[in-house]
Amino acid sequence: MNKFRKEEEPSDLFEIAGVKYYFDLDQLTQFIRIEKPESVDDILGEAKKELVKNTEDSEDSENEELVEPELEGYSQIIDITKWETTKVMIETVLTEQGPIDEAMGRTKLSNQLSIPFKLSFNTLLKYQIIKEDDGR
Questions:
Q1: Domain final residue pick, 73, 88, 123
Q2: In this structure, are 81 and 130 located in the same domain?
Q3: Would you say 76 and 33 are in contact if contact means Cβ atoms under 8 Å apart?
């Protein structure tokens, strides 16, 4: 369900090879999100413990201060690898160039598209980031 579009609104989407597609931004958000950890310790784990130990063991430890990062203001933490990969696939779909005749149907249209476009489009479709509009 799209948070921004009312259910009773008619679909005014353009057709692409006879099908109406759109990017589902809510699905994209869910796809790249990592559940927020309970505390900073969950993120830093052993690295933080080692930093504290090294700070306590150092000779000039009175001059060093351990600063714990604040995560309270963040609403979500994302998987940066998924985000960057997804961003590149979206850019590939949006920047496909070349003479394309949509009236030829899906089979002929498929022959006109680049391999990066096909892979990007199929992956975004599979993970439901690009969806077919069902008319609702």
A1: 73
A2: yes
A3: yes
